[in-house]
Amino acid sequence: MKTGPHTLVTGKTDTGKSAVVKTLLPGMMASGKYQKLLVLDYKLDPRFGADLLTDDPEEFLAAVEALEDCLLVIDEGGATVGRYGGELQKISTMYRELGHQAFFISQRGAQIDKTIRENCSNLIVLMQGRGDAKALAESFPRLEPLIDDVPMLEQGEYIFVPSFGDPKRGRAF
Ligand SMILES: Nc1ncnc2c1ncn2[C@@H]1O[C@H](COP(=O)(O)OP(=O)(O)OP(=O)(O)O)[C@@H](O)[C@H]1O
Ligand SMILES: [Mg+2]
Q1: Has residue 1 been placed in a domain?
Q2: Does the C-beta of 155 come closer than 6 Å to ligand 1?
Q3: With the C-alpha atoms ordered 57, 54, 119, 16, is the resulting torsion angle positive or negative?
């Protein structure tokens, strides 16, 4: 079975979630490991540089099912949590055998579906409340010693938490 390590990206609105992912995409696409970059984003932000950019979950899912080995970005953005909830869950559980690797961008750690959390190998956490950080640490235990750092992160600053190995701090801007 082919599996791509999925990554969950969480933080309050305007903390820089989309910006962080945008800094990672060019290098990943240049690696030659991915056929296409597919982006589901209700803001339809052209700066993702997507091969397919849509705000329509049906259109996105059709492309995900028709292709293999793509890099996927599902960006809920804004103030709505769960906008793409059903689709997020489906992709996190069903499509790994197609070789896709996904970034799930959503606002709040505490509200993210447990199925999605458990299907993500990596976490990128931006500024959010301690309660959300604590909820995330249940699925990503290596965040536990850093819970108190999360509410103090600056805009654009993040902590990358892998399943294995040490968490690393970084800045998108
Ligand atoms: N490269 C950059 N350089 C400087 N500032 C930036 C950069 N990218 C983003 N910002 C600033 O950070 C803000 C938040 O960035 P971004 O849109 O990525 O946040 P977000 O967490 O995705 O927000 P939302 O949940 O609303 O989608 C932007 O509105 C902008 O002011
Ligand atoms: Mg965003």
Answers
A1: no
A2: yes
A3: negative
